[in-house]
Amino acid sequence: MTGAPPLLEVTDLAVSYSSSTGRIAAVNGVSFSVAPGERFGLVGESGSGKSTTAMAILRLLRPPGLVERGLVTLEGVDLLAADADTLREIRWRRLALVPQGSMNALNPVMRVRDQIEDGIVAHEGKAERSALRRRVTGLLESVRLSASVADRYPHELSGGMRQRVCIAMAIALAPRLLIADEPTSALDVIVQRAVAETLLDATADLNAALVLIGHDLALQAQMVDRLGVMRAGRLIEVGPVRRVFHTPAHRYTRALIAAVPSIRHRPRLLRADQEEPEGTCAFGPGCPDTGRVGSEARPIMHEIAPDHFVICGLDDATHATERLSGMSA
Amino acid sequence: MNSPRKASVGEPPLLELERVSKVFPRGRSLREGTRALDDISMVIPSGAPSITAIAGESGSGKTTLAHLVLGLLKPSGGSIRYRGDDVTTLLERGGTSFRREVQAILQDPYDVFNPFYTVDHVFDVLFRRFDLGTTKQDRHELVREALLAVGLEPERTLGRYPHQLSGGQAQRLMVARSLMLRPRLIVADEPVSMVDATLRVTILDTMVQLKETLGVSFLYITHDLATAYRMSDEILIVHRGRVVERGTTRSVIDAPQDPYTRLLIESIPEPDPDLRWPGRLVEAMSEPLEPSILSEVAP
Known about the structure:
By secondary structure, chain A is an alpha/beta fold. In chain A, 33% of the residues lie in helices and 24% in strands.
């Protein structure tokens, strides 16, 4: 949302999953954009819709997941409408995924070298063997792995090394955007830091943008420029990472930040009566949503400071009632 | 329920580990086996209740330690004493009071539930196994009291099936179950690692409140130094089966002496964009570290 035209633009994205009792909204009207080279974080607890949002952008959503509405563009190309050929052209070259849990992401019966080379050949066509070898070595180097890793099978590597291989594969064709879905969540803290730093360095070297999906607010604080907070399928607050951490506007964002333990200070115990009551509007009496009814009743984001957006803290039902009473008053 | 306990002179420690080791044999050979724990000594005093954290990464041996204390494993060397008595011996003689007074809270709360029964079943089993409450009314009151103590509303909890509870509720229910036995020590092995952040705090804070109001001591096993910092009084940092540093939690985390502990603490992401990791890890390592850590960080 800065000066440069966005690299990725997501507008009013909605995804639902069908179940025996009907369709359940997993992502409900999410909009955000990512500038070239920017690092954008999407944080939320389980079920918030953050991973579903990522899968929808990548067109990796599987039934019963279904995109209900919305627009996703990458450098102007409509991803949701793209056919199989266009997608093949875009994936890896312009948009790549660093997956969660790297054991499943790698083929267990292929050496690391063959997996990386296969991907390159599939997109660029056949190449000279020695040239491919040099590229694999270079890629491994850029994620701080020694060249000998190329000849190993995934099970011969530690969790941290496997995750580095996944990063090497994601950057193989120099994409403009990397989407990393909980890239370090299975790792111990020291290895997590090392892999996170590798991911940051690799993205910076390419001048690529990064969308970091994760539940860990502390990790987001370390890694991103802008942060979006998701809850129950909605993006409830977006802003520069410092603003979101230092002056969070939404009640849920405040609760989420307060819940992260720190080794620098030891807060007093949070008692139930100190929590903010549910159903408090982020704006108070002057809520700009007051008076909006009917089809307009869907909560929208309001810019409260440059680049800092927040949704009114009320859920839909309360929203509608409040608005009606606001009108009659 | 229990009132806070006062220290009495000459009472043996609540829990004492003396030079405990555990080797998992490879085939029949102990010598070639895996040394999961090596020469661990520690004391949880009786008297004033306390929370002792055992913190370490995967493979540190911390879960093995929890299992040894609970009597689920026998030590290969050294001894573990509960209020002065050897745990292995206690259990060989039946160990009813040990089984009552030392309770466990484990990582996955749903593990303990049978999905086909309502959660009440957990309490029914407890009443069958231990002598608690004489009348049905008594028992119902005990359950209510325990649920309220962990912040669960009995009316909205009992009669439900496990899948109808959130992870946080299920975990608190397990704490409630333990409380009914009036435990003196609760061994909590990664009790919040499968729970969302906002619920995590309530469970940890519940533990601190139980220490303060009911006088329960905790052995808190975790990989997460930040939660240990929030709630524990004493801490032991374990690495590859050995204690590398110990002391009051504040002194260890504020001024770590051991190079591994220091690296561990420096690597914890701080939830503040103004306090980012200082430089890159590879450059940050000023002291020589074991090749095993080095190979992970900068292979």
